[in-house]
Amino acid sequence: MSDQAHIGHDLAPGDEEQHDVGTRILGYVVGLVLALLLTATSFFIAGTDLVWQPSIPVALIVLAIAQMGVHLVFFLHITTGPDNTNNVLALAFGLLVVFLVVGGTVWIMAHLNANMPPMDQIMPKPM
Amino acid sequence: MSMTAAVGDAHADPHHIGLVVEHPGPAPKRIVTAYGFWVFLLSDIVMFSCFFAAYAVLVSQTAGGPKGSEIFEQRNVAIETVCLLLSSFTCGMASIAADVRNRFWFYLGMAVTCVLGLIFLAIEFREFADLVARGYGPSRSAFLTAFFSLVGCHGLHVSAGVLWLLTMMAQVFAKGFRADVLRRMMCFALFWHALDIIWVGVFSVVYLLGGGS
C-alpha cells in the first residue's frame, strides 16, 4: 500500500494511515473485541428481565448504532482526519437518506394507522 | 502578487493539512476506485433502509400467522452473528496480508472468511427451509414477506460476497498481487465489512427487537 498512497492526496475508504503490520492487526483485534462485547450485551439485554422492560428497545438501538460505529472506525477505517473528508461526507449523505427513508416511513405510517377510521366506515357494505 | 499566491495555496491545499501541491492532478486510481465503490456501498445501504422501513411498518401485520417471537431462534442468530464478526476480522487479516504480499496468510485469511460465510449461509438457509416447511413461507403474511425479503436480501449479498471472495483467491493465484487485483481486493474488503454493518441492523431490529415483543 505504501507505494500507492501519495502524500497530499486523500485516503481511499478502507485504507489506513501508514502503519506497520502489528499496529494494523491490533486495530482489527480491538474492533473485534469491542464488536463481540456489544453483540453479547445486545443478546443479553434482549433476553433478560433484570432491566426495566420499556427501556430495552431503546437500549438495543443504541447498542446497534454503537456497534456500527465500531465497525466503521476499526474495520472500514473511516476517521475524522482531513484526508478522509470525502469519505465522511459521502457517508453523511448516505445516513441522511437512510434516516429520511426509515424515520419518514415509520412516522407517516404510524399516523396513517392512527388517523384511519375502521375499514367498515370507509367502504360501504355491499347490499 | 502575494494575494494570488495565497489564493493559489488555498486551492492547492483544500483541507489545510499544511502540504501544498501546486499541480496535484487527478487522484491515484486506488483512491478513485475505492471512493466509487464506497458510494455504491452507501447506495446499497440506502436500498437496505427501504427494506428495513417496510419491515418496521409490516412487523405487526401477521394476518393470524406467527409473530416474530414464535419463530425466531436466538441461539442460531447468535451463532450467525459470531460467524460474520469473525469473518470480518479474518477478511481484515487477508487484506493486510495482500498489502504486504504474503500469499500464505492471504489464502488462509480468505479461506477462513469463506468457511465462516458458508456456515452463516447454511444456518440461514436451514432456518428459511424450516419456516417454509412449517407453512410460514413469505406468502403467509405481510410480516413474513417483509422478513424474508430483508433477511433474504442480506443473504443474497453474502452469497455474492462468497463468490467474489473465491474469484479474488483465484485471481491472486493466477495473476499475483498486481495493482488491479489489489484494488479489487480492497473493494471486496469494503463490501464484506459493509455487509457486517447491515447484519448488525438485521439482528438488532429483526431478531432481538422483533423477537422480544
UniProtKB/TrEMBL annotation, chain A:
- Entry's InterPro entries? Cyt_c_oxidase_su4_prok (IPR005171), Cyt_o_ubiqinol_oxidase_su4 (IPR014210), Cytochrome_c_oxidase_bac_sub4 (IPR050968)
- Lineage: superkingdom: Bacteria
Database matches in Pfam families:
COX4_pro (PF03626)
- Is the keyword NAD in the record? no
Q: Does the keyword Translocase apply?
A: no
Name the UniProt key words of this record, in alphabetical order. Cell membrane, Electron transport, Membrane, Oxidoreductase, Transmembrane, Transmembrane helix, Transport
According to the record, the signal peptide region is none
- Membrane-spanning parts: 25-46, 58-78, 90-110
**Where in or outside the cell?**
Cell membrane
How does this protein lie in the membrane? Answer: Multi-pass membrane protein
Q: How does it assemble?
A: Heterooctamer of two A chains, two B chains, two C chains and two D chains.
Member of which family? Answer: Belongs to the cytochrome c oxidase bacterial subunit 4 family.
**Task performed by this protein:** Cytochrome bo(3) ubiquinol terminal oxidase is the component of the aerobic respiratory chain of E.coli that predominates when cells are grown at high aeration. Has proton pump activity across the membrane in addition to electron transfer, pumping 2 protons/electron.
Would you tell me the protein name for this molecule?
Cytochrome bo(3) ubiquinol oxidase subunit 4
Q: Which organism is it from?
A: Bradyrhizobium campsiandrae
What gene is behind this protein? cyoD
TrEMBL record, chain B:
What organism is this sequence from? Bradyrhizobium campsiandrae
Which InterPro entries would you find in this protein's record?
A: Cyt_c/ubiquinol_Oxase_su3 (IPR024791), Cyt_c_oxidase-like_su3 (IPR000298), Cyt_c_oxidase_su3-like_sf (IPR035973), Cyt_c_oxidase_su3_a-hlx (IPR013833), Ubiquinol_oxase_su3_dom (IPR033946)
Protein name per Swiss-Prot or TrEMBL: Cytochrome (Ubi)quinol oxidase subunit III
What PROSITE patterns does the record tag this protein with? Answer: COX3
Membrane topology label: Multi-pass membrane protein
**Family, similarity comment:** Belongs to the cytochrome c oxidase subunit 3 family.
Domain Heme-copper oxidase subunit III family profile spans what residues?
35-211
Q: Where are the transmembrane segments?
A: 35-57, 77-97, 104-123, 143-166, 187-210
Intracellular or extracellular location(s): Cell membrane
PANTHER family per record: CYTOCHROME BO(3) UBIQUINOL OXIDASE SUBUNIT 3, CYTOCHROME C OXIDASE SUBUNIT III
Taking the first listed entry, what is the main subcellular location of this protein, grouped into a coarse class?
membrane
User: Gene3D superfamilies this protein is in?
Assistant: Cytochrome c oxidase, subunit III, four-helix bundle (1.20.120.80)
User: What keywords would UniProt list here?
Assistant: Cell membrane, Membrane, Oxidoreductase, Transmembrane, Transmembrane helix
Query: Which classification does the entry list for the species?
Result: Bacteria, Pseudomonadati, Pseudomonadota, Alphaproteobacteria, Hyphomicrobiales
